[in-house]
Amino acid sequence: MFCSWALKFLPAAPAAMVVLVDLLLMLLDLSYSILCAVLQTLLPPRLKSVEGELCLITGAGGALGRLFALEFAKEGAQLVLWDCDTAANEHTARLARDLGVKVHAYTVDLSKREHIYEAADRVRAEVGDVTMVVNNAGVVAGRRLLDCPDELLERTLLVNCHALFWMTKAFLPQMKARNHGHIVTIASALGLFTTSCVEDYCASKFGAVGFHESLALELQAENQGGIKTTLVCPYIVNNGMFAGCEIRKELRSLIPPLEPLYTVQESMKAILGEQQMVCIPRLIYIPFLARVLLPWEANLATYRFMGGDKCMLPFINRTETKVT
Ligand SMILES: NC(=O)C1=CN([C@@H]2O[C@H](COP(=O)(O)OP(=O)(O)OC[C@H]3O[C@@H](n4cnc5c(N)ncnc54)[C@H](OP(=O)(O)O)[C@@H]3O)[C@@H](O)[C@H]2O)C=CC1
Ligand SMILES: CC1=C(/C=C/C(C)=C/C=C/C(C)=C/C=O)C(C)(C)CCC1
């Protein structure tokens, strides 16, 4: 921000001088961003209005997707709801319509690129240009890698990660034309650090985090500041998707599973506050930082102590017994 301004006034300065000034201004930028982030956490954030926005939510028939739809409806956004489960999606649509907003429900299989592009064309023709996308749909195989059919592993990557590419290719061009829009990625704490037996899920969510960050940087580089991005990384949510997953019993009250409504309300604060990223709860920033700052063995020791290394085993055992 400050750097480009200063360069205009220093055209003839020697290169070393320019670098030095640039460095100082970058440090100023850096301190300013940290200050803003600190203030953001201490003060109630200024929230934008989404009235009149056309907001598309994927996985809208699921636990978090339904709550997102209802929260956006309360804020006055017009909704486009996508899910492969027609009945669940229609149910969400009815609940949202009861709140007085226009809702358009589509049955879409996000694991198929062509379905995404076809549905996007239909939305453009039947409803209009989408201005907000909440990439929320997600799946997990829930089986041990070597016991899991390839198709199930592939599906996790297709829905949780590949679909982000096709969704963005389908809806970003219209946002770019107006330099206005918002792309939200519902990733996971398991997109920032990992645990055992969920290789498909972790790989897909790390992919989602990487995709999201690169897209955010691309929009900045192209001066498309009117298009916002928000990455949401929640810890385990108490809705059954990971039923059985648990850390060491004695430490569970330190970091209990999240309530779905709380998760969505915290996500909404970040989205409407145009925050770039949020971990829910904030405590999740600690293992995220520790993963890169500490040696592998040190992380392993803390994971073992907290029961984070084997937290998925009861979940995997449950799904495997259900299948066999
Ligand atoms: N629950 C948790 O503990 C956490 C979840 N998350 C993430 O939050 C997001 C929402 O999860 P949550 O609400 O809990 O999950 P749910 O399983 O409740 O909802 C996911 C929804 O997406 C739908 N869906 C699945 N596959 C497809 C597909 N191919 N095409 C279209 N829709 C599809 C599901 O339909 P169907 O039911 O028919 O499969 C379901 O309606 C996910 O991205 C998840 O990874 C992040 C952190 C923790
Ligand atoms: C691994 C690990 C932990 C447990 C994490 C768990 C249990 C995450 C579950 C996340 C889910 C289910 C996300 C879904 O998207 C602790 C205790 C925080 C300590 C650090 C290491």
Automatic annotation (TrEMBL):
GO terms for cellular component: lipid droplet; membrane. The gene is LOC101170667. The keyword NADP applies. The keyword NADP applies. It comes from Oryzias latipes. Catalyzes the reduction of all-trans-retinal to all-trans-retinol in the presence of NADPH. InterPro entries: NAD(P)-bd_dom_sf (IPR036291), Sc_DH/Rdtase_CS (IPR020904), SDR_fam (IPR002347). It is a multi-pass membrane protein. It is found in: Membrane. Its main location: membrane. It catalyses: all-trans-retinol + NADP(+) = all-trans-retinal + NADPH + H(+). Pfam families: adh_short. This is Short-chain dehydrogenase/reductase 3. Keywords: Lipid metabolism, Membrane, NADP, Oxidoreductase, Transmembrane, Transmembrane helix. PROSITE patterns: ADH_SHORT. GO terms for molecular function: all-trans-retinol dehydrogenase (NADP+) activity; oxidoreductase activity, acting on the CH-OH group of donors, NAD or NADP as acceptor. Its EC number is 1.1.1.300. Belongs to the short-chain dehydrogenases/reductases (SDR) family.
